[in-house]
Amino acid sequence: MAQAGTVDRILDTAEVLFAQKGFAETSLRAITSKAGVNLAAVNYHFGSKESLIQAVFERFLKPFCAHLDNMMSELEAHPAEISLERLLATLSKSALAVQRGEPQRVAIFFRLSGLAYSQAQGHLRRFFREHYGDVFRRFLRLLAVAVPDVPPMEVFWRVHFALGATIFTLSGMDPLRAICRSDFGVEVSPQQVDERLLAFVAGGIRATVSAS
Amino acid sequence: MAQAGTVDRILDTAEVLFAQKGFAETSLRAITSKAGVNLAAVNYHFGSKESLIQAVFERFLKPFCAHLDNMMSELEAHPAEISLERLLATLSKSALAVQRGEPQRVAIFFRLSGLAYSQAQGHLRRFFREHYGDVFRRFLRLLAVAVPDVPPMEVFWRVHFALGATIFTLSGMDPLRAICRSDFGVEVSPQQVDERLLAFVAGGIRATVSAS
DNA sequence: AGCCTCCCGAAACAAACGTTTGAAACGTAT
DNA sequence: ATACGTTTCAAACGTTTGTTTCGGGAGGCT
Fold first, then answer.
1. Can you name the CATH fold of A53-206?
2. What whole-number distance in Å separates Cα of residue A85 and Cα of residue B43?
3. In this predicted structure, what is the pLDDT of residue B211?
4. CB of residue B49 closer than 7 A to nucleic acid strand C?
């Protein structure tokens, strides 16, 4: 990354600053000065700040969805191997596809996802639904196969519950670990948090369906 | 609310606009003009925009915590009645204490909580921990009694997972219901979402603890 | 050479922001 | 009626924002 091109230097810096302070709170000047590029470079290469934000997400989501698509194709070819644990592990593995060398990029990815969700009424929700709605629905169909006892619509809602728990947790991973350390005097690694989260999510998705 | 005082008109308008567009994206001019008060009124009555944001949260959190505190005291007086379902219902009831007539205020409350969490590194996290950390820890202790099979630290993490699922879901309630309607052709009420969420959360908290 | 396209750089732009000011209007008690 | 503390108002302040402009340089092509 030492002497990457201007576009990549902007993206590298923007994703870090966005994750640290939010989109509106991060000015183009903060990005360009830290990236060592001219202020006008953002509008020249990306057109606008909005497009820069979308470009940051695209750089994360493209490898993520590509990896996820591949693994889902494999699973669909061998339907007997489809299970909840297997599907959740697939998500977990696909998330690792975004790190490109630096493991911290996974945390940045989830921080940004959390930010994007809260800013939901803006341009980002449209962007997500347009570009990645198909991948999501495909995953939903596989999941319905994995937990046949849970009706498809119930699966839909529980996936969103699980998504909330995941984004919320991984996006605030470091502060949560700090609280855990100060309240319990125990140091837990991000991997241990992942394990706990997976157990929680699996338990929630498999919960007995209430009669309504 | 027709002719309330300036302070309340500002708070009423601010909480709606903040929930719709976010804190940084909502200008004081937008608030004051919609509220029908002078621009300077915010700085006169609250001191700054940051203080206004905290005042908005305080108006939600004070009745919420008061109600929660009362119900926790009752439960502590009759420890035999402590159960996970009972505790979750306590939270649910306390959330209703913030609506002050208009039911939509509950949704606003959770939207704001979601926003606050994503903007976590700012002044809000300090504000929350200082003012409401005790109530949270008290609830955590009760919960550890309700699920004795789950170690306290595991409970801590699972509460945060559940918090994420809840805030994420309730903060995006309307868009999620719209997706559900278009994808499944079924209209679900917010109450039905609450029921599903409670089942998910209970299942997650009670999940078997993995050996690590 | 000339020309063209792409990229960078410093400067400037208008707009919007949170905040401050000082005077006018208000209600109330003396 | 006068004086006083409180609240409201229009206007302006200085900064910061995203975006645009325009000159110039590097490299490829005819």
1. Tetracycline Repressor; domain 2 (1.10.357)
2. 53
3. 65
4. yes
